[in-house]
Amino acid sequence: MKTENHEVIFAIVNSGFAEDVMDVAREQGVRGGTILNARGVVNEDAAAFFGITLHADKEILMMVVEKDIRDRVLNAIYKEMGMAKKAKGIAFSLPVSDVAGLAVKAEPAAEAAE
After folding, report:
1. What CA–CA distances, in Å, run from 65 to 70, 94, 95?
2. What pTM does this model have?
3. Largest CA distance in the chain
4. Rounded to an integer, what distance in angstroms lies between the CA atom of residue 96 and that of residue 108?
5. Which helix (H) or strand (E) holds 33?
6. Which of 49, 61, 91, 94 could make an S-S bridge to 77, C-beta 3.0–4.6 Å?
7. What is the pLDDT of residues 75-92, one digit of tens each?
């Protein structure tokens, strides 16, 4: 189904931190995600120049989110899991043009008048 209401957020973190990122995202309204195992590659001279420690094993958390919560989720991930933290995380979003298989979020039922 065509959509302009969703984005996919990718959070790339050191191995072992994707579940922590998911916890942060859930607090902002994200309902679920997919964790992929990955391996980071970088020029070692650049790493030494910037004074960063490299961890080859990475996890990528992919989350399809409603566009209206995207900024809130990205800011929370950056605050809790960013490069200054042990997770050494980066996060970014991309637009989604088509979605299949997502459950429609139910609207809260109107409370009966007393």
Report:
1. 7, 10, 10
2. 0.78
3. 70
4. 26
5. none
6. 91
7. 999 999 988 888 888 999
> What does the DSSP assignment read for 44-113?
HHHHHHHT----SEEEEEEEEEEGGGHHHHHHHHHHHHSTTSTT--EEEEEE-SB--SPPPPPPPPPPPP
Measure the CA–CA gap between 20 and 75, rounded to whole angstroms.
15
Q: What is the pLDDT of residues 23-79, one digit of tens each?
A: 999 999 999 999 999 988 776 776 666 666 566 799 999 999 999 999 999 999 999
Q: What is the 8-class DSSP label of residue 23?
A: H
Q: Which amino acid would we find at residue 10?
A: F
Query: 3-class DSSP state for residue 27?
Result: helix
Find the mean pLDDT for residues 104-110.
56
What span, in angstroms and rounded, lies between the C-alpha atoms of 72 and 55? Answer: 27
Closest listed residue to residue 74, CA positions, set 54, 52, 84, 89? 89
